[in-house]
Design goal:
399 residues; alpha/beta; Rossmann fold; 7-stranded parallel sheet
């Protein structure tokens, strides 16, 4: 049995159920007989509200909430230069007083928290595993990219990332792209381990079966799941639908699940679209899964220059058995779609390409179903947490 400390700035607490990676890892380690403490923030990043400490549910492992001031915008000085700094300071105090663990597993980002953990592990000679979920500051450059000024502002964040990876004994990441970034600075791990975010196949299917979703027989659903923000180009799907003749868009519904800072802008842009556009909002994970399983085509319209690689929606689309129309630049994801013949890659800023791909899948049911079956195979092979996450447990046990 090992005493494992997980530090995840962004994860679930209490009754929250968002299919979070780190809660799942904590569950697996607990079932394997290890003593687990998961440290996270008092502020729920997803819901933008402070958590109720008294809401803690029995998860089988200990959870610790550290105070973090609230913020309203994901990309804001208050979040990056105040709230995260306070959380990191409180994390430093906690580590200074807690019982020494056998191994520390830290989610990156946030970088402020990661540096505190790296310093602690180096000082106390504790093995450190860094799990890279996103690349900071690369993820922010799409929104704030002013020559010279951006480089100056983000330089400290790049330094933080290098410091964390240089101390880590092991690099785990949600994609090969992210793993390679960590390995550039890592001194101890020369290979890294890629474990996609994924979801649990059995739980995914049960969610779809347990929730009834009504859909008209004459409707074809094109579905997007995720944040409505700067990294996601919802407008290109609307533009593509408007390029199609009404004979093709008749019965088509563009279903959008999620919310974000650009929701109202996207709603206004969708007015007058040839196809019906339905902004459903953010649902619980199980209900979202049930809607996905009723869908016919998934879209992955990630903006030019975005830093994302393999992300949550990729696994959900695959598990749902949906063909994907993709504009994302990431070679890693484009290659997955091509290799498994489960989607169509388009030019990142080409509504014409997207319209052509959508028309092909809307009109050719045989192709749509074939790509859907291939997508499901991809999900079973690459995105089933019950299988893929055992590698994470092995690393923790053997480090």
């Amino acid at each position: 049995m090992k005493k494992v400390l997980l530090v995840a700035h962004f994860c679930d607490y209490g009754m929250e159920q968002s299919n979070n990676r780190f809660n799942y890892i904590a569950d697996m380690l607990t079932r394997a007989g290890h003593s687990v403490t998961l440290v996270t923030s008092s502020f729920c990043h997803r819901d933008k509200k402070q958590r109720d400490v008294g809401e803690q549910s029995s998860r089988g492992y200990d959870m610790v909430l550290l105070k973090e001031p609230s913020y309203q915008k994901n990309i804001s000085p208050k979040r990056l230069f105040y709230s995260h700094k306070v959380f990191a300071a409180n994390l430093k105090k906690y580590l200074g007083a807690c019982e020494k663990p056998d191994v520390v597993y830290v989610a990156i980002p946030s970088n402020d928290a990661g540096v505190v953990v790296a310093d602690y592990c180096k000082r106390e000679s504790i093995p450190l595993i860094a799990d890279i979920q996103d690349l900071w500051p690369e993820a922010f450059r799409l929104v704030f990219n002013i020559p010279v000024i951006s480089k100056m502002i983000f330089a400290p964040m790049s330094y933080q990332a290098d410091k964390i990876y240089s101390v880590a004994d092991k690099i785990i990441a949600v994609s090969g792209t992210y793993a390679n970034r960590g390995l550039q600075a890592c001194k101890k791990d020369k290979e890294g381990t890629v474990v996609f975010l994924g979801t649990e196949l059995e739980a995914f299917d049960k969610s779809a079966e347990s929730i009834r979703i009504d859909k008209n027989d004459d409707e074809l659903w094109i579905t997007y799941v995720g944040t409505l923000g700067h990294s996601y180009n919802i407008k290109i799907i609307i533009d593509a639908l408007n390029l199609l003749p009404e004979s093709v868009t008749e019965g088509v519904v563009f279903k959008i699940f999620g919310d974000g800072p650009l929701m109202e802008e996207f709603k206004e842009y969708s007015s007058g679209c040839k196809a019906k556009v339905d902004f459903v909002g953010r649902l619980g994970y199980g209900e979202m899964v049930a809607h996905l399983k009723k869908s016919d085509i998934a879209v992955n319209p990630i903006s030019k220059g975005a830093a994302q690689s393999i992300i949550n929606k990729h696994g959900d689309y695959a598990m749902a058995g949906l063909p994907v129309v993709n504009t994302q630049e990431s070679h890693e994801y484009r290659s997955l779609l091509e290799t498994h013949n489960c989607g169509i890659n388009c030019g990142v800023e080409s509504p014409e390409d997207v319209a052509k791909a959508l028309k092909m899948l809307i009109e050719d049911e045989v192709l749509r179903l074939e790509m859907g079956r291939n997508s499901r195979k991809l999900g079973e092979e690459k995105f089933d947490r019950k299988q893929s996450y055992t590698g994470i447990v092995d690393i923790i046990e053997n480090i």
